[in-house]
Amino acid sequence: MTTEPSVQPPLAPPLPTTTTTTPPPPPAVPSGGVQVRCAGCRMILTVSPGVTEFVCPSCHLPQMLPPELMKISLPPPPLPLPQPQPPQSQTAPAHGIDPTKIQLPCAHCKAILNVPHGLARFSCPQCGVDLAVDLDKVKQLINAQQQPRPIPPPPPEEVNEVAIEVEREEDEGGTVGETFMDYRPPKLSIGPPHPDPIVETSSLSSVQPPEPAYDLKIRDDLERSKALSCLQIETLIYACQRHAQHLPNGSRAGFFVGDGAGVGKGRTVAGLIWENWHHGRKKALWISIGSDLKFDAKRDLDDMGAMCIAVHPLNKLPYSKLDSKSVGIKEGVVFSTYSSLIASSERGRSRMQQLVQWCGPGFDGLIIFDECHKAKNLVPESGSQPTRTGAAVLEIQARLPEARVVYCSATGASEPRNLGYMVRLGLWGAGTSFDNFQLFLGALEKGGVGALELVAMDMKARGMYVCRTLSYKGAEFEVVEAPLEPEMMEMYKKAAEFWAELRVELLSANAFLNNDKANSSQLWRLYWSSHQRFFSHMCMSAKVPVTVRLAKKALAENKCAVIGLQSTGEARTEEAGIELDDFISGPRELLLKFVEENYALPEKPEPLPVEEDTVKELKRKRHSATPGAKVSLKGRVLKVSKRNRASDVETDEELEVLFYKMRYWGEMVCFIGKTGVAASPPDSDDEFQMSDSPESSESESDDEFQICDICSGEEERKKLLKCSICGQHLHPSCLVPPVIVELGAEDWSCHSCKMKTDEYLQEREAYMAEMTKRYEAALERKSKILDIIRSLDLPNNPLDDIIDQLGGPENVAEMTGRRGMLVRASNGKGVTYQVRSTKDVSMEMVNMHEKKLFMDGKKFIAIISEAGSAGVSLQADRRAINQRRRVHLTLELPWSADRAIQQFGRTHRSNQASAPEYRLLFTNLGGERRFASIVAKRLETLGALTQGDRRAGPSLSAYNYDSSYGKKALVMMYRGIMEQESLPVVPPGCSAEKPETIQNFILKAKAALVSVGIVRDSVLGNGKISGRIVDSDMHDVGRFLNRLLGLPPDIQNRLFELFVSILDILVQNARIEGNLDSGIVDMRANSIELLGTPKTVHVDHMSGASTMLFTFTLDRGITWESARSMLEEKQQDGLSSANDGFYESKREWLGRRHFVLAFESTSSGLYKIVRPAVGESIREMYLQELKNKYRKISSMEKACSGWEDEYDVSSKQCMHGPKCKLGNYCTVGRRLQEVNVLGGLILPVWGTIEKALEKQYRHSHKRLRVVRMVTTNDNQRIVGLFIPNAAVETVLQADLAWVQEIDD
Predict the structure, then answer these.
(1) How big is the CA angle at 60 (ends 54 and 65), to the nearest 5 degrees?
(2) What is the pLDDT of residue 952?
(3) Are 422 and 407 in contact (CB under 8 A)?
(4) How many other C-beta atoms lie within 10 A of the C-beta of residue 784?
(5) b/e map of 869-900 (b: 16 or more CB within 10 Å)?
(6) Can you give the pLDDT at residue 644?
(7) CA angle in degrees (0–180, nearest 5) for 159-164-167
(8) 10 Å Cβ neighbour count for 975?
């Protein structure tokens, strides 16, 4: 029963009504409405509160709100509740939301009903269901509505698609075009100019080093000898100046020489040693990567005039004290390799301790870490261990805190993680923004590529870093394709199939033997390393014909050739002097060696002894075995533990029985009691031997009597029989049947022992037969596999093949790590293995000897490997006899552009007569072509010129595959192939209209990934493959690229294309969303001027370097006159197309249309876009997209009017209009704007800046962005962090209250 309301209800209460359709919304938009896009004309419409159905006023299409927006459009009932109206005889039909009634949903159809106050029961006018009002719920609803409501947000401004497009372009910025700048020391004028052009990155060139204050003692010597150039002297001064400082933790500050290959780091280091020698510091440690580099070190010291300084190779010295009388090294340079640094002698003496002892306490001399990137991985990726080298480098610095440390490496700072051992730079720890290296690393990885540039700038500004690179101006390069011939393609395919079958065979063999896990993991490590080397040799072999052709062409043009590869693929031969019919196939020998050494065989059984000796031998072993010892099925005596021996029992209170628990057919053999009295263990039917002494092999006592073990009667020992196996003493008459045998016979055995011996022999024979059968079967399988390998058609070892085709070792200088080579016999028949060293030239000196022959012009072709050529100079040196131009052929590129540039540095160095030509060879397999283009791009940025036009187009961008985007792409591809998610792109060779082609590809891809061990625990059923990919493989791009080479060419290329397609999408999406870390971004404008005086934010007390806030004014617009002249120039040059011209947007925003100038770019089908407010757009537009968004204007008057209007408006407001949420802070599409850049030292204020950026509204403003500004009036370059206008106040106030004006 319902209670009566406090007011009189109407006599005929009106029925509740549903909300109905309303006409189009009125012009005035009430607050709380929603914005939707028309389903017909796509126009943005604002729908009033309460309206669910409407008609578009533009295209007149009837439509309704989507369900998720209906709740938003319904306003709450007004508060307080209205007073009831007097009764009326007739009520008007409800229209939408009636504010005089309560809105309640129908329990059945969910329609919103207008229910008059006081009405308790009614029927739904829409579905006819009887309803009753639940007063408790109504009260809860009213109470909830009476709570204070938040103020509704203002209506969002009209969505402007052009503004979104411009904002994305602004977020992306323009990447720095001119990456390198010509270099000269900015604050020094001592010394001659460097003999070759030197460049520096544009970011570093914008930073000034501190004022030089150090006075060189060898300055007069240098000016007289001119042994060092001005930039080498600059390094000397800043290094010595830095070494005079101490870090907050008390250790001496270090210096980092990051100069590229060929700049002259060795000569600079020699200068440092010579300078310190004049200060009385006559001991120095020089640690490098190869022992033969000590000759270069000595040469550099001699060139400096420091002939008195001796260089002592540590690997030739004993482990005793270096300054002892026997060794006698009191001063000079001790030259060590990184491998020597971690070495120790058999007696446990370490080189580390030897060096620390030689240096002595308080050592303040030089420690040179040359090529210090070899100490990387001190802080490895999660899951791996730090390298011993990295730990040793860290240890020697800690033990010699006063040492003057110099780090030398061209690639040492390429990754923030590799800075971990550079503790003397003072970038983290006491007195910095980062308490430890992990925090420093986290900040840099979060900051991305630009953050590492900032650290380099920071170090240069503090005077602890130089990084110059030899310009590649004059060098030329060409990317040459060496496609696989059909024969080679078939060879490659069969080899890939064989490796997959070999893997299955090894898995089966291993599972059968049930080997321990450690051996198994070692096997697979060897398998995959051999797998990778095999297929890299195959790729190299495919390039041999092209390499030989290009080398012969270079010789014909009076040039010389240098052929670079990563590894030699040294063929395995049993002994020097072996004669063969033809060259050994490197890949085949590698396979044979792997299978021979790693194919798991069961243990080979030992041959059985002669039949008549078997029993005697067994008895002998049994007889001589210590009581309690085991005798195995093979007759081996196993030693027993010496614990619990009878002699160890000290109590005589009771009989103590010790059981030696030895199992022989599962039974107890010996039982020993201390007292020498025979006893039997409970519940045992066995016979036991008594023993008085644990050391005795028989039961013996000092008297002549022994007790019979059957009748227990005492008898003289010589009248008893003794079993030669169990050792029991028995009366002959006690045995059943009685035994007639000569007393004292040594080989007599009792009946039970004899039975056991016969049984043992039978079992052993059966066991040996089974083991022999298994072993022979496994041996036969191994033999068959080796026969298959020998029958495979595989290419020759590429290195030997090239040398042979180019005239043999007489014409080719080889600088590799291998010890021998195959040489064709003088009569042309057969080949012979020849050791590279001779009587006159030791193995250690053979590479130096070969280099000399090449540089002296006795050989005009050189082959270098990464291992054998580290630090070697092969350029057309002006001091050398052979000054022919070098043609550098890269037979094998490393998977790193930095390492590739290092290899190119062998032939491109200072003081050269001519710059080299580079030929980057690649096959049509996997990622080789794409990677060759990345290296080519790097060469181009360094100033090299391209030859021909064989490089691929703009799609071949310099992506780093093993990046965060590469890892995401790999995960997406793996999940798509494993059918956990759908693939984001259609796989190559498939069609979206034909799903069966995609399914077929997925099946092939799964099978391929199974064959290279990425998909594990695979099961084939119902035509489908199932399995799993472990987490460590999911993100390992390097492993994917390496394993990819072991697949047949077709599926290999398709998988790689799929991976790259997904990577392209991820990178493109990141670029659109403003998340792409593109390193340093150029802020482009027609006019850039510095506004006012920069403000000092922070000053470093050690170096005097400062952090400054610069404010610039930018004018980005293009006037109508400039735009028209751009179009006219195109038309006059005959480069314009029919679609070039001025366009206006098809849609209006805030009553305005946007205007653009479009003209065809050099890329076919793409158009460059120029806007009045922001100038030329970075992103080019496809013609179809241009025509969809814009329409061409034929009237130049209309184009002029619209262009000038937009140009004027954009000077005062952004593209979002006057009601933009960010107000004056918004810069999207604004022609005139202020830009703030924080330059100078960034690391001291890093944390403050991060906090300020986190509060920004725009997503792209939340991340650290490194920008470069070049002022148009005086060409001043500033590189630093972009600070959004809204964050300037926070940056200046938070923890940085010491802002001050810079004095003129």
Answers:
(1) 25
(2) 24
(3) yes
(4) 11
(5) bbbbbbbbbeebebbbbbbbbbbbbbbbbebb
(6) 41
(7) 140
(8) 15
Say how far apart CA 267 and CA 230 lie, in whole Å. Answer: 12
Q: 873, 862 in Cβ contact below 8 A? A: no
pLDDT in tens, 73-106: 455 444 444 444 444 434 344 445 666 677 777 8
Could you give the 3-state DSSP secondary structure of residue 630?
A: strand
- CA distance linking residue 819 with residue 572, whole number of Å: 11
In order of 14, 126, 1201, the CA distances from 100 in angstroms are 12, 21, 53
The answer to whether the CB of 785 falls within 8 A of the CB of 599 is: yes
Contact residues for 1237 (Cβ-Cβ < 8 A; gap 6+):
1109, 1110, 1111, 1112, 1267, 1269, 1278, 1280, 1281, 1282, 1283
What does the mean pLDDT of the chain come to?
A: 75
Sign of the CA dihedral with 46 first, then 50, 54, and 57 last: negative
Using DSSP, state whether 1280 is helix, strand or coil.
Answer: strand
pLDDT greater than 80 at residue 10: no
First to last CA, the chain: 91
For residue 376 the two structure tokens come to 């990387």
Number of helices and strands in the chain (H, E)? 32, 54
Q: How many CB atoms lie within 10 A of CB 725?
A: 25
Q: Hey, is 512 helix, strand or coil?
A: helix
For 741-799, give the secondary structure using H, E and C. Answer: CCCCCCCCCCHHHHHHHHHHHHHHHHHHHHHHHHHHHHHHHHHHHHHHHHHCCCCCCHH
Output the six-digit token pair for 452: 């590492």
3-state secondary structure of 337: strand
Average pLDDT over residues 228-232: 91
Rounded Cα–Cα distance for residues 132 and 155 (Å):
38
Residue-wise burial string across 326-346, b where 16 or more C-beta atoms lie within 10 A, e elsewhere:
ebebebbbbbbbbbbbbbeee
List, in sequence order, every residue forming a beta bridge with 283; answer none if it has no partner: 332
DSSP type of residue 1232: E
Q: 820-824 and 831-835: which strand pairing?
A: antiparallel
Mean pLDDT along residues 1094-1107: 81
Per-residue pLDDT at 16: 45
Q: Cα-Cα-Cα-Cα dihedral of 1048, 1052, 1053, 1057, to 10°? A: 170
Pairing assessment for the beta strands 34-37 and 17-18 based on DSSP bridges: unpaired
Residue 699: predicted pLDDT:
40
Q: Which of 894, 835, 886, 841 is nearest to 870 (CA)?
A: 894
Q: Closest Cα partner for 125 from 2, 51, 19, 13?
A: 19
Letter for the amino acid at 769? A
Residue 257's pLDDT band (cuts 50, 70, 90): very high
Q: Which two tokens stand for residue 25?
A: 């919304």
CB 62 within 8 A of CB 53: yes
Question: Is the entire prediction scored with pTM above 0.70?
Answer: no
Asked if 122 contacts 131 with a C-beta cutoff of 8 angstroms, the reply is yes
The better pLDDT of the pair 1192, 1130 is held by: 1192
Give the pLDDT band of residue 382 (cuts 50, 70, 90).
low
- Contacts of residue 473, defined as CB under 8 A and 6 or more positions apart, other chains included, come to 197, 915, 943, 944
In the beta sheet, which residues pair with residue 1087?
1115
Question: For 1211-1246, what is each residue's pLDDT tens digit?
Answer: 888 887 777 777 777 778 888 888 889 888 888 777
Contact 284, 276 (CB under 8 A): yes
